[in-house]
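*** Protein under study ***
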Amino acid sequence: MKRIAFFQDNLDVGGIQKSLVNLLRNFDYENYQVDLYLSEKKSFWKVDFPPQLNIKYLKHLPRLCSFIPFDIARNMVSLDFGDCPEYDLAIDFNSYQFSCALGALTVPAKRRVMWIHNNVSVKLENEWKYRVLWFNFKDKFKYYDRFVGVSQGVIEPFMVSSGIYDPEKFTVIQNTIDTGEIYQKAEEDFDFAPDPEKLNFVALGRLCHQKGYDIMLELFAKAARHRDDLHLYIIGNGDKRFALEYQRDSLGLTDKVTFLGQQTNPFKYMDRMDAFVSTSRYEGQPLNIMEAKALGLPLYCTKNLERYSRGLVGREDILDAVVHAKKEPKRRDDLRQYNAEIIESIKALAEEDFRARPEKKKTVSIIALHLGVGGVEKAIISMANIFAKRYEVKLFSVYDMPDSPAFPVAEGVRVLYLLGDTPNREQWKAALRELRPLRFIKESIRSVKILTGKRRTVARVIKNIHDGVIITTRHEHNLLLSRYGSPNVLKIGQLHHDHRFEKKYVRGFEKGYEGVDIMALLTPQLVEEAERMMAGKNSHTKLVYIPNFLVHYPEHPELREREKTALAAGRLTKVKRFDLLIRQFARIHPQAPDWKLKILGDGEDAAALAQEIHELGAEDYILLAGRKNGEQVEEEMCKASIFAMSSSSEGFPFVLLEAQSCALPILAYDVRVGPGFIVHPGEDGYLAAEGDEAAYEERLLEMMSKPELLRQMGRRALLHAGEFSEEKVAEKWYSVIET
């Protein structure tokens, strides 16, 4: 009979304790001897455990031990297990209590496993006490054979924070759910009945920033504009209670949202509802989702929660889902198969043989700010995808944006997100605009936390990587790589834009990048300029030219039928100068009345641009088409006749390569570096001198009036696009990494 030992500090109130109780009430005691070691007798859960479970108590250890580096504390105190026979598996179920770790790592055992219940990156960002504990107990990680996370969403931040990136050492095992207890409590009789004429949603959890109740209230405020029969009940308490009640009343939801407070038995309320809703920003594993599923409640959960609850199908557009929600028959799920799979997974750990592994590939670690929509982000993901054909690739993203990753990621690329929060610029601006001082102060403090957290987590990742290759993709991250990168790592920095001789970039090349081995720049001109900056000041960093590349070429775009459309695409921001393009197109419209301008993309300037089009009376021939996916952009490019760029600054404008691959002639301003490197004037398009609006408009009218010229330019554009193929650029990268 196999033997398993669980180590936990106590069975007091808490999610970890409840998870363990559920697990041990449902374990396979016929084939396994299970011992539970506790360091305290304190218990909240009044549970009759199966008689086969052996509960033992460890010697009480001073709390002070948790605030001493683990290896030092381990030598100061000891636990005596006497002649205890060897366990097949010892489980530290708590992950950061010293007593649990010492027990699991001291008891005679063949294998030792640590359970991870929380998103440690978020705890490190927000809890100073946890940061102190982490600094002290991180030394223990090297002693465990394997790590178990309750979701993929907790494994990834743990990898990032611990520097343990070997995926073979990690597995996901979710928490068990005691449906018998849920059903028993759901049947409890009490005086409460929601309005049967309403569609009643319920949310359950602590009222804190993590759970995203502010997002939920905004969601229901928008949904209430479309229908009047929605009611939201929120079960729980926490430090955001007052702020959330104020937000509810400010949004006019006083009679549509009810706070039920903390309930010892939430299931009797949940069972009387029509649907469950969750908009949490992050989780460990959201047990409330599984509890709602057990009660048969339809689930309305945001897409990001799929990472924290295996098998959950989140809502792509949760507002639309709530607006169109209907009452559905509730079908309870006793989760028998779900619980059985969890027990089998734990048993498999006891049976597992940790054999020697084959030699690993070289590891390439790439650090990006985010993986949302954008040319830089597309280039970074494409780079990671080609590396996956030859190396083990880890792609670190500081922010987990709602649309991340916005582009396809190859199977061999492991994506790891560093922060649980995302930039709050829009919330900060809204608080300032609406003259809400308390909210403004709150968002300002949050902004500072996000910015400091960004730097701290990137530095931590760089410090934790001791072999292979690190590629950073932004100036501030290049500086951190130079400062903290290991001497055993090949350190490669990138700039995805034009430095424009700004002081911070000049200082970077002169002194800030001294610890970087290679700087990869997008054009030969940038390399030459950087060499002059570094001359006599930085002799270590080698400069190389590696452009972005195309991963896909449309089939015979030169044969496509073309519309009289000038196309523009990009994020609707100031640097793209779409306002200038709109004014110019409106000026020439009388001379080319059958031509239209279509702008693809979204961004903060969308409303202002729409207003400008309206004021010009140009709605009939200038269209803001909104954000499009890759296939839709390609389709638009293959239908248009001209690609128009009006940016004031470009490094390597990826969108111009895409336009060329669609046999689309280009007209752009000859701003520094980017357009002039890609466009060959007179062959595949034209460049107008920066600031010369008349020349730009003249060239645009010329192109519009000469369809045969456009066809010739389109064919040449297609030929030039071939110079930026994946194969050619990949060889440049391989020669850098493997020399």
